[in-house]
Design the sequence.
């Protein structure tokens, strides 16, 4: 059975003191059995080292961004070797804000993913359609193309530590959550793609849902058969809400409190 994963994408939010306070609160939350699920926090990169050194067992701290080259004239960027040097081994790739606001192309996303998986990083790859694609009814075709261009050429041996996140762009930060029918349709579609292209490991890769997932709807969403947890933006900034979402993942996994 796939272990659930709950990941917090803090984006460009929280000051250092708040971030460390959040982590301390999580560490003290004895109700959570972090060995029973994978929790990941993606803080702003300047907090990575401090948070990694203070994170409780079972909580990974990952980087929201990096560049795929090893070193060189790339002002403002960080590379995977530098992340490794502070014991960071998890990265987020393909988030729609990176694609849209920072113009990351499918080619760049594929280069980043290639570099990260080959360096042994745990990766969460985000895919998702815009409102206009959804309205056109071509969302599955669009998602298929995103899967092909990002993981279509990868060998299954290198993607064992990959999780996918289905994040409909129209649901991110909007308060509009995809409904269960929409979520099931896409997650089942992604699972079929994984099983077809990666027959040995396709059933073990996690598919997370992201898009206005919160402490109120998490349990219902995580109960869908091919939803293996969530990538949470806004609701992950509030420690008590984040813990509630983790608790929902626990409950769905049959873990008692
Ligand atoms: C995200 O940015 O990955 C996200 C899912 O945001 P939100 O939960 O705020 O919609």
Sequence:
């Amino acid at each position: 059975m796939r272990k659930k994963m709950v990941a917090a994408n803090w984006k460009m939010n929280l000051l250092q003191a708040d971030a460390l306070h959040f982590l301390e609160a999580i560490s003290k939350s004895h109700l959570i059995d972090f060995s029973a699920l994978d929790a990941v926090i993606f803080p702003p990169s300047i907090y990575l080292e401090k948070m990694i050194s203070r994170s409780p067992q079972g909580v990974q701290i990952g980087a929201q961004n990096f560049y795929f080259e090893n070193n060189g004239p790339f002002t403002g960027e960080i590379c995977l070797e530098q992340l490794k040097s502070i014991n960071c081994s998890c990265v987020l790739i393909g988030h729609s804000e990176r694609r849209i606001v920072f113009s990351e192309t499918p080619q760049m996303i594929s280069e980043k993913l290639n570099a990260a998986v080959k360096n042994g990083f745990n990766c969460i790859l985000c895919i998702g359609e815009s409102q206009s694609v959804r309205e056109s009814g071509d969302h599955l075709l669009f998602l298929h193309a995103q899967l092909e261009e990002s993981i279509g050429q990868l060998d299954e041996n290198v993607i064992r530590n990959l999780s996918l996140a289905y994040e409909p762009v129209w649901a991110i930060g909007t308060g509009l959550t995809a409904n269960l029918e929409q979520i099931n349709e896409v997650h089942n579609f992604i699972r079929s793609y994984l099983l077809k292209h990666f027959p040995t490991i396709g059933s073990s890769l996690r598919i997370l849902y992201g898009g206005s997932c919160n402490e109120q709807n998490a349990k219902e969403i995580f109960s869908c058969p091919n939803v293996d947890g969530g990538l949470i933006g806004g609701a992950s900034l509030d420690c008590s809400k984040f813990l509630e979402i983790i608790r929902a993942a626990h409950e769905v996994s049959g873990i008692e409190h």
Observations:
- The chain has a mean pLDDT of 96.
